[in-house]
Amino acid sequence: MPPNKFTLIPTNPLPAPLHPPSDLATGSQNSVFVSRQALETQFTSTMMDVLGICIDTLQNPDTSSPDTSGPGYRCGFHYLYTSLTGNLGSTQPGDTAISPGFRSAVMLWNARTLTTQQAQDTVYKLGPHSYFSESSYVMHNWTARYWGGKGYEQLLAVKRAHDPGNHFWCHHCVGDNPGDATGDLVGDGAKAQDEFVEQN
């Protein structure tokens, strides 16, 4: 891993006071690919559970929430995308580098402002995979959620063969530290964040 892997300061992209990425302010959104079976059997109850989290924080604000719709709410907006390849009759090749969830899902659900634990208790139960480009900055099982266990190992072998120095790097990309859920800063990135916090 390059010692200066972060040249930008990672913060929660929601327009709120500074919330460094953590299990309480995960940055961006928790995403999950939802299969047809999960949509038919679990989606409604999961949506009600997520709504319950919102209602609870309306009554008892959570001061760790990055949601800007109100002080301490966990009622961030949700996106539901339904144009995925899991629809009946879609081509679903299995020899690609994308998440297996992308091939079997009929919906992508992006849920903002949930904590890591809330996401694990609700939306992540709908499926084992997330969409890399629209997902939480903080993710503990990112290698499996993005590429599946076997897929990640194959991609890592290619990465090590063609980029042994890990020069082409990004947070939670193939070759990143699989145990690093939060994108802990190292080297110059840590120094830059300390300076930023002192100035603000």
Choose one word for the global shape: flat
Total of domains: 1
Number of separate helices: 7
Helix percent reads 25-40%
Protein name: Berberine/berberine-like domain-containing protein
InterPro entries: BBE
Domain Berberine/berberine-like: 138-173
Region (Disordered): 1-23
TL;DR?
The protein is an alpha+beta fold and 200 residues long.
Could you characterize what this model shows?
- This is Berberine/berberine-like domain-containing protein.
- InterPro entries: BBE (IPR012951).
- With 200 residues, the protein is of the alpha+beta class.
- It has one domain (29-199).
- 34% of the residues lie in helices and 10% in strands.
- The chain contains seven helices and three strands.
- It has helices at 36-41, 43-59, 100-104, 116-121, 142-147, 149-162, 187-199; strands at 29-35, 78-81, 105-112.
- Strands 1-3-2 form a three-stranded antiparallel β-sheet.
- The longest helix has 17 residues, at 43-59.
